[in-house]
Amino acid sequence: MTRMALSDKLAILSDAARYDASCASSGTARRDSRDGKGLGSTEGSGICHAYAPDGRCISLLKILMTNFCIYDCAYCINRVSSHVRRARFSPDEVVQLTIEFYRRNYIEGLFLSSGIIRSPDATMSDMVQIARRLREGENFRGYIHLKTIPDAAPELIEQAGLYADRLSINVELPTDNSVKAYAPEKNPVTIRKAMGDVKSRKEVAAEKSYTGKRGKRFAPAGQSTQMIVGADGSTDATILGQSTRLYGAYQLRRVYYSAFSPIPDATAQLPLIKPPLVREHRLYQADWLLRFYGFGVDEITAARPDGNLDLEIDPKLAWALQNRALFPVDVNRASKDMLLRVPGFGTRTVGRILSTRRHRGLRYGDLLQMGAPVKKAQPFIIARDWTPGALTDSANLRARFAPPPQQLSLL
Amino acid sequence: MYTVPLPRIGTDLAWRDAAKRLIGAAIPPQDVLWDFGGEMGELFATATPLPPPSRRIKAPQSFVQMADTVVWHKDPQRFARLYAMLWRLRHETGLMQDRADQHLAKLRQMEKGVNRCKHKMKAFVRFRDLRQGGDRRSFAAWFEPTHHTVEPTAPFFARRFADMDWMIATPDVTAQFVDGNLSFHPGQPKPDLPEDGAEALWGTYFCNIFNPARVKIKAMTSEMPKKYWKNLPEAQHIHDLIAGAEAKVQKMRDAAPTLPPERAKRIQNRLRQQKDGDQ
After folding, report:
1. Percent of chain A beyond pLDDT 70?
2. Same structural domain for residues B113 and B148?
3. Measured between CA atoms, how close is A141 to chain B, in angstroms?
4. Which one of A203, B22, B91, B228 has the lowest number of neighbouring Cβ atoms within 10 Å?
């Protein structure tokens, strides 16, 4: 075989990596290289160094070590039965690309994933070797995200967690049955076990010993996972139920939703669709409501009998329209929990309302002044000089927010 | 009437020192003119020396933090606005918590603008390798910030790129980091930087990480406004990526399903045998 040029490999192995939604570089331990002996820093909030025309942030060099794979997952561009071109980086190539991109301020670090070659252990140990060389050989202090390979030996996962900021393992599909149907070699039980292992290792690392010393930091930015949306028949209620279990049982930092998106050389088993981007967006909104706004899954998915979210309006508004008896709420008196449930109000707006109302009673204009999205909120709130009257209960309230109905096209 | 000259480099400390002296001597806002970088010329220059530093001036911490950011805004009114706020704070306690006060809201908005500009600078500066040899590698970048954000953002680059020398040149102020020492110099026209081969690789990455099935141009431009594109090497590819996206996806859709390659069966059989062996 002739040697492939580095740029060809990079093209193939980044093309293969783009279906992973995560590009986060935030929430890890603070590090810098002020001592002059290393390269890189992480300062809490992540940085998006570029945006592609798909609107996604480019924060990390997101590549596969190799796209050779022995598994046959129907939704995946790299499955063994696909004719996609194959390539493999040497560890040295990955290290050099990461360092040279980083020095030019293109990236925050590396997100390394891989197809499964030979065996899960062999693959994982190659990935750990790359992370180790970055940390120990190059004194790299930027961000590293490693995809952990299901079924890899626990010792390898442990080493991975010492070098990486974040570990992730994809549950891929919302239900065990779907995983069996579309990713026959993957086992949902082992995937969950691997997430459980990472969680308990993190807990052990956070404990102090009897001398008060802390262990080495283990994956300080936690673990995340990804679910593909729209490839199987799961409803939003099923998906969000699964997320809630994952957040609770494994303390995941993030669950990413990835709209099933056309791949080259697709299998007949999974016909290509237009990626359900709006659905993906609504799922993220719902995910936020679950984590930061005190909503339960049942509340969010109760609005529609089919268990899916309303695509035309956001999930909080949909909930509020179903629960109009609780509105309007008085912005000068309502509790924080209740203010967080007002459509349009985010955590920041609520914080501003709470801070300002200690000094004065809020008027409609004050809300405008502090940048609250009043248009959306107005049917649901009372202020000093504002009451929605019959608006809250009016029959056409939904129509005010939903996009106008479109005539069906004949073609 | 006082005219306070403020230098382009070290503006934050100069403004803070002058504001302390003026507020200590109870000089009302209408009696102060702020002259940034000598822009006013001779016309308004006055010889009145600033009042001496007096008793300890108290201002809420939240104001001090906000002022440290707002002084870097490009709005010529920034110093006067800050001083007027400081003047009011002498008697209006709790003003900093009032998110509905319009003067404060304006300052907060300016603060947000500066913070965004700092963040974008951290993201969009692109270094080129100067290939100068020696112990430390050296890099340089040309950048055009919206506000005067080179000085407050440079320490970030010093923490991050401490094992190399670098320069960020801008029309406003130029930051230099040599042998671990950070210094600031007057702005300059765009320097001629040597070509850097890594930019082509970076372009390859940018083109291939893009998913043509999810074109969302607005989401891109709201976070990476066009004004930055001319100094981003990857931005030259954006036009072609958008133009070719639809056809690429259509090709994926139209392609008939293929038979798996020969080796797929071999690999799969081996995998199955292994699994049976395990059980």
Report:
1. 98
2. no
3. 9
4. B91
Partner-chain contact A41 B200, CB within 8 Å? no
Condensed to tens digits (0 to 9), the pLDDT of residues A254-271 reads 999 999 988 888 888 888
Q: Which residues of A touch B200 (CB under 8 A)?
A: 7
User: If pLDDT is split at 50, 70 and 90, which confidence band does A80 have?
Assistant: very high
Cβ contact B267–A70 (<8 Å) = yes
Q: Please indicate whether, in this complex, the C-beta atoms of B232 and A50 are within 8 angstroms of each other.
A: yes
Q: Do A62 and B209 lie within an 8 Å CB cutoff? A: yes
Q: Is B105 in the same domain as B169?
A: no
Through-space distance between the first and last CA atoms of chain B, rounded to whole angstroms: 91
The model's pLDDT over A368-402, given as tens digits with 9 standing for 90+, comes to: 988 899 999 999 999 999 999 889 988 899 998 98
**Residues across chain A:** 411
Sequence-distant (≥ 6) Cβ neighbours of residue A43 within 8 angstroms:
A30, A32, B156, B159
Whether B112 and B7 share a structural domain: yes
Evaluate if residue B222 carries a pLDDT over 70.
Answer: yes
The DSSP output letter for B54 is -
Chain B interface mutation, best of A80, A123, A263, highest count of B Cβ atoms under 10 Å:
A80
Listed residue (B112, B153, B120, B149) closest to B227, CA to CA = B120
Q: In terms of domains, do B77 and B12 share one? A: yes
Number of domains, chain B: 3
Give A257-300 as a DSSP string: EEE----TT--TTS------HHHHHHHHHHHHHHHHS---HHHH
Domain ranges, residue B212: 197-279
B191 domain-assigned = no
What percentage of chain B carries pLDDT values higher than 70?
A: 97
- Please state the rounded mean pLDDT for residues B161-171: 97
Nearest residue to A109 via CA among A67, A192, A46: A46
B157 contact residues in A (CB cutoff 8 A): 105
Which of A62-71, A323-332, B43-52 has the lowest average pLDDT?
B43-52
Phi/psi region, residue A3 (left: phi>0; alpha: psi -120 to 50; beta: rest), is: beta
Average pLDDT estimate for B49-55: 84
Pairs across A and B, CB distance < 8 A: 211
Q: Distance between CA B144 and CA A50 in Å, rounded?
A: 16
And the tokens for B234? 């990857």
Please judge whether A47 and B220 are an interchain contact, meaning their C-beta atoms are less than 8 angstroms apart.
no
pLDDT-derived band of residue B279, with 50, 70 and 90 as boundaries?
low
Q: Under an 8 A CB cutoff, do B214 and A48 touch?
A: no
When computed from its CA atoms, the radius of gyration of chain B, rounded to whole angstroms, is 27
ipTM of the complex: 0.94
